[in-house]
Specification:
Elements (H helix, E strand, L loop, with lengths): L1 E6 L3 H16 L3 E4 L7 E8 L15 E11 L4 E6 L3 H16 L12 E9 L15 E4 L3 E8 L2 E9 L5
Antiparallel strand pairs: 1-3, 1-8, 2-6, 4-5, 4-7, 5-6, 8-9
């Protein structure tokens, strides 16, 4: 199985991300935009792993929220993304996920954690386009659980499916 650990957007956050994709399109950014059902905030990318590992998912230590605050572009990955405001609680959660994976011997991509949601891949921009000029919807999302996702090749690209969840914080 091809796995990763991520936060699943709630309906309001998902709606704002879809609106943000539309704003990018309207500004002339062509890309292979992800379907709304595939949008997520990755905490750790595992890749191929033979077993389901939901038991390793930590619950957030305390309830907190993530807030959209910018649009950016990773040239080396060819990705247009939505970023979140700096958040120490989110950083701690990502570190706990990675620590649990390490202790269990589950390898993951060791790149530093940079909280973002991929909006589109292989973007092309009109002259003068600057991602940071896209107006970002004012929206936050409470973080109550961590999800284990499986990714599968579908007829129109990857399909991301939640296959496990940590317990919800009450």
């Amino acid at each position: 199985m091809r796995l990763f650990v991520a936060l699943q957007p709630d309906p309001g956050f998902l709606s704002a991300l879809s609106a943000l994709q539309n704003r990018c399109r309207e500004a002339g950014a062509a890309a292979r935009y992800l379907a709304p059902s595939n949008l997520h905030l990755t905490l750790a990318f595992i890749g191929e792993w033979p077993e389901e590992i939901t038991s390793l998912l930590p619950e957030p230590e305390e309830p907190f929220s993530v807030t959209l605050d910018r649009v950016g572009f990773f040239p080396q990955a060819d990705v247009l993304w939505a970023g979140t405001a700096p958040n120490p609680a989110l950083d701690r959660l990502a570190a706990r996920v990675r620590e649990r994976l390490t202790r269990a011997g589950v390898p993951f991509d060791p790149k530093p954690f940079y909280p973002h949601i991929t909006l589109g891949r292989k973007p092309s921009f009109p002259p003068g386009f600057r991602p940071e000029q896209i107006r970002v919807p004012a929206v936050s999302m409470p973080v109550r659980e961590v999800c284990l996702y499986r990714s599968d090749h579908g007829p129109n690209g990857m399909i991301y499916t939640v296959i496990g969840r940590s317990g919800a914080v009450s």
